Amino acid sequence: MILPIVAYGDPVLKKRASEISKDYPNLKETLANMYESMYGAYGVGLAAPQVGLSIRLFLVDTSPFSEDDSYTAKEQAELKAFKKTFINAKILEESGEEWGFNEGCLSIPNVREDVFRKPKIKIEYQDEDFNTHVEEYQGLIARVIQHEYDHIEGILFTDKVSSLKKRLLKGKLNNISKGKTSVDYRMRFPNVSKKRS
Question: Catalytic annotation on 148?
């Protein structure tokens, strides 16, 4: 089932999410719905707060980036094959020299900005079966993970831009929270009396 994506301005997006245990109700169904919702919105990542659940869970599938010719064949193959569920994730380390990349977010439609992040991460997380993993990632995969990880920490990519950019974006962000934006996927707007779907 496709779930509506929660729009900018909803308090759930600014809240640090809670850990879950393997007896979390309907977890398999929640994961299936989140994957369906992510693909339905042409996303490469989706965090539980973006569907209104304040839990430490996010998904990443970087395969759409594999069609970009600016990546080497090896990078394209890595991007195409990368699809993972992260539960109770904790970034243990970020390293390297920060690099900028133009990011967007399903909860903040039609807004893109350059965000600077470190290129390498070490992350501990649990998979769908609650097996614990500690893994290292770099480049675009690391960036998508960092973006989704920020969501479970209550941080949006717009929080990471300069104060000048924030001022310039203010009107657009206010409009998104009021539902004054055009999207081709289901959304839930916080400041609209009659919810759209």
Answer: yes
